[in-house]
Amino acid sequence: MLTLVCCIAGLSPVCGQQPVAFNPLESFKQVMYPAGNALRTVNGKPGSQYWQNRADYQISADFDTLSRQLKATQEVSYFNNSPDALSELWFLLGQNRFRKDSRTTMLTPLNGSRFGIMEFTDGFVLEKVMIKNNKDGTWSKVDYKIMNDQLKVILPEDLNTKAKLSIRIDYHFILPKNGSDFMGVLPTVNGTIYQFASWFPRILVYDDIEGWNTSNSGYYIEPGKLKYKITVPSECIVQGTGQLLNPEQVLTKIQLERLHAAKKSDQTVQIRTAKEAGMSSSRPGPGRLTWHFSADNAGDGLFVVSKSFIWDAVKVDMPNKEVVMAMSLYPVESNYDTWKQSAQTMKKVLESYSKLWSPYPFETSVNVAGPVTGIGGPGVSFIHYKSDGMANGVWSKINHELGHSWFNMMIAGNGRQAWMVEGLNSFINHVNGEVLEGETAFLMADAVDWLGKAKPGQSVATPYELMIDKNFALLAYMKPAVALNLLRTQVLGKKRFDDAFRTFVQAWKFKHPVPADFFRCMEKETGENLSWFWQSWFLNDWSLDQSIENVKYVNEQPEKGIDIKLVNKGKMVMPLVLEIIEFNGQVNRVSLPAEVWQKGTEWTFHYPSTTAVISVKLDPDRALPDTDLGNNIWRGNASQKKVPAGMTAQTVLDRYFAAIGGKALVLKLKSAVLKYTRGEGKMLYTLEQTASFPDQYSFILDFAPLAQPLQKYTVNGENVNYQKFGAPEELNAKQSLQVKLMCRLFPELEMNTGKHQLRLADSTRNLSGTDVYVLFANENHAAGRAYYYDVKTGLKVKEEDLMHLDPDLPYTSMEMAEYKLLDGLMLPYTLIFKRAGENETLLKGKEFKLTMN
Ligand SMILES: [Zn+2]
């Protein structure tokens, strides 16, 4: 049916044939930005007429811990800076999502979802909605309508441009225990933790793009002043967005002293210790206390109430010599050894972001352990109380959630383009990881893996509400972060990128940029047309496959240089780096801009070699997400040399045994356990090879998130077993033999037993600059394998399956490198697995154990 449609309508260039994927007119198509104007300039900055409205809040709330009811009065002063007269005001009623009849409830899948509704309340119950008479200061009722989770206040007369009005709303609601991972309730041994988000009717953004942003408005805030008071039982501690204005009224004398000390201290000061957390003497009492907070440029707020907290604080130095406070609150149920470091981690993270991009915009930063997995609001983050360890737990979560104070609390973009919130934040998280921990942002092999998992048809720019769940993490967080990282390191260079990015941050501080503003600002500041980059990474679902088509000597004379022909096979384009190794030992690199692809799918360039060329390699550092590495390398004939006379298969084996410590020592081996890993934490990938000589072996691949080993092969004499995810799988005779050969630790021990037919290739080969002898082995005339031994050292550098390997086996070739001595034996500490058409998997030796007879 589809073919028919395509033939008749002629939609495809050549029906029935694969169309050429790459088309320069498509990949370099100019991104059409809206015309620049006095609001948003052609340079991607706010113009002279830029405006945004402003809402300042004053809220007084009383929280009853027993009923979980928050009862509040809120007064909003709203300033209309728009050129339009407004006949209504719109508020977001975040709590209404918990109503049984809400749209979010109806959109929650049967088996639930992280942000779905799992528990019903009555939402916000509005007691009074009133408007202030600007002339006499009296309050009178005003008409309003509630639509799903939005409140439309119908003004008695238009609010003119440059005019201001005040609306008062009295309301109450019950805090849901399970608050769709934004808020919630957690009982602990020293008291319950109540985490509040979406706790007041929040004004929606009225902007020059959409007017009132009434759709998917949860992640779009209007920075303004937030002043609030929370009254709770005196034994509770309250912390939230903004500065605590009345510490002397709500803290004990000793806590007050400690708080003052923390303001001057680079060491963490405990305002309340673990021991004190359970003691009523550590709180002023009895009765109820009111906590006052105030924050500028907040526009939203989070707070928390609990008796249970341990409370740490430390000073944070800003580049402008100012000082802010980092505070961490957690219950005794959190891992103390990890969480006692969290205030220092916050300090480090805040100081780094401040130095890199712009000073932290609030007076305090509060991190709270509780039931919520992880959210970042203005000056407050909620992190799951069981988050643990530094690799994937508290460190990376603090790094991420605190980053939200920049994106999108400071750079208040519309979260409907989720990348402007999560993607820009994930990007600065990566840079911080590199600056603070020396972490590589990510391995390109992993990035290719992630990107490949995104369901096609959706791009980074797909609006949030349309993104399928599976794509959300990939397209809103990872892909834009990978993209900006590459823009920074591979396209523009760090300094140039950072200057432009900083300019964008400065220009849009507490304002509302749109994607075009970001794209334009990055282009104008660097003087580049980056349409191809936005097309490749943000606006489409394309992948990268740049390749070396062929390499030719000019007039077939190496000394006249070579012409290298490149072909672009994917729609994505990126700059190119090539590494050329010559016979004379020279290794040189050539960089080409992405623009070589502007005119066509092929590009040929000249390289002035003076001797024969051993190899040309594209993307030698594996810095780009190229999906087919197989066509990234070209090897010349110069890499082959005749094997010297007298050298035989047996000599190669003898040299190998001598190099690793002697055959006698290998024969003394009773058992061996070799453990290799890559990644860590949740991404930990392990290979465990065991041997109980002479004929029992296992080869187990494990991936941390899985309960059962990914793949487990065991060999016991002639018996071969295979389990996948813990379930046994059938193997045919050929597969069994392949598994057997793969599992052996020292196949050389059997290579001269007569079972093998050995043949030494008559010339050497060159593997990435190393000359090797190649030994072909056929066992039972069935499964052919090749073994490669370093001509210089005698060590084995590679093993390869020459038959069509069963698709389930983990590699077609395995490279060994970085030999180290253990108990007199040389063992490879680096393994690189490779399967045809797939990416390399690099494993590092972690734990080796040998037992000798
Ligand atoms: Zn986030």
UniProtKB/TrEMBL annotation:
Pfam families: Peptidase_M1
Domain Peptidase M1 membrane alanine aminopeptidase: from-to ranges: 390-537
Top-rank taxon: Bacteria
Molecular function terms, GO-annotated: metallopeptidase activity; zinc ion binding
Protein name: Peptidase M1 membrane alanine aminopeptidase domain-containing protein
Annotated organism of origin: Pedobacter steynii
